[in-house]
Amino acid sequence: NAGVMQNPRHLVRRRGQEARLRCSPMKGHSHVYWYRQLPEEGLKFMVYLQKENIIDESGMPKERFSAEFPKEGPSILRIQQVVRGDSAAYFCASSPVRNLINTEAFFGQGTRLTVV
Amino acid sequence: AQSVTQLDSQVPVFEEAPVELRCNYSSSVSVYLFWYVQYPNQGLQLLLKYLSGSTLVKGINGFEAEFNKSQTSFHLRKPSVHISDTAEYFCAVGTLLSGSARQLTFGSGTQLTVLP
Fold it and tell me: Quick one: which of A11, B9, B67, B90 has the fewest CB in 10 Å?
């Protein structure tokens, strides 16, 4: 029973390149959440997706960042034209239903993005 | 809006000693409180959660937390720690919005280091 799988675990990009982070939720989970953890800070919510739909993207930067969760395949967090300030750990979580109060969200191991 | 403050970024403690990790929150609506643990190079794992009812909540690995509404606190405690408890601990608050929670707000984390 695999947990939430994120890849790659570590990603190095030069300034101006694109970064693609992938998240495969737990089997049977159709809700995915992306969080960013900047150095010395807690996790900050970015976006919440269901299959083929973005439900809440209130935490996403307005430019360069996008997310999708297609009908088939993993959820993708895409960062275009990366800058040094994008260096962070990006965590994905999944849950079987929408409500995060009564249902535990399971987290992946994260992708550590380093922009050089 | 809600926020979470973890007052200590680092807590060193000797093995078999008791420990308390502090967490204060602010929210304008009813809250639900969580503690997560992150072992090195792993994702977040739920330790315990407070939804309603008894203010003393017991979690996994011998941890417990007490919800104090008047002091807006949710401190995590363990009477006797082990080396294996060395990890980063995150306090989080979730609020119920229109019947479902869209996101969790995390504190900046407390690194617990258990010394032999």
Answer: B9
Percent of chain A exceeding pLDDT 70 equals 93
Q: Which residue of A has its CA nearest to B96?
A: A101
**Pairwise CA distance, residues A56 & A42, whole Å:** 20
What does the mean pLDDT of chain A come to? 90
CB within 8 Å: A55 and B102: yes
Whole-Å CA distances, A75 to A5, A21, A56, A97, B52: 10, 8, 15, 16, 33
Could you tell me which chain A residue has the CA closest to the CA of B4? Answer: A42
Query: Using CA atoms, how far apart are residues A93 and A110, in angstroms rounded to an integer?
Result: 9
CA atoms within 13 A on the CB side of A4: 30
- B47-92: pLDDT as tens digits: 999 988 888 999 999 999 999 989 999 999 999 999 999 999 999 9
Task: Give one DSSP letter per residue of chain A, joined into a string.
Answer: ----EEE-SEEEE-TT--EEEEEEPPTT--EEEEEEE-TTS-EEEEEEEETTEEEE-TTS-SSSEEEE--SSS-EEEEE-S--GGG-EEEEEEEESSS-TTTSPPEE---EEEEE-
Q: Is the pLDDT of residue A84 over 70?
A: yes
Contact A101 B51 (CB under 8 A): yes
**What is the least distance, in Å, from the CA of A73 to any CA of chain B?**
21
